[in-house]
Amino acid sequence: MPENSQNRISYFSDRSINEIALPERFTFPFYYEPHQLTKIAAAELQHYLETHTDLDHNFGLTADKDGLVIGKMFGVLVVKDTEGKLGYLSAFSGKLAGTNDHPKFVPPVFDMLVENSFFLKEQEIINTINARIDEILGDGNYQQLKLDVERLSAQSSQEIATLKDQQKNNKETRHKLREEQKNILNEQYYAELEAGLVEQSLYDHFQLKDLKRNWKMLLEEKRSALAQFEDSVEALKNERKERSAALQRQLFEQYVFLNKDGKTKSLHEIFSQTAFGKPPSAAGECATPKLLQFAFANGYQPIAMAEFWWGAAPRSEIRKHKQFYPACTGKCKPILAHMLDGMLVDENPFLQAEEQCNQLDIIYEDESFVVVNKPAGLRSVPGVDIQDSVYTRLKQVLVNTEPLIVHRLDMGTSGLLVVAKTRGAHKHIQKQFLARTVRKRYTALLSKLIGPEEGVIDLPLCGDVLNRPRQMVSFDEGKKSTTRWKVTERYETTTKVAFWPLTGRSHQLRVHSAHELGLNAPIVGDDIYGTPSGRMYLHAAYLEFMHPITKETVSFEIAEDF
Question: In which domain, by residue range, is 147 found?
Answer without folding.
Answer: 135-169+209-251
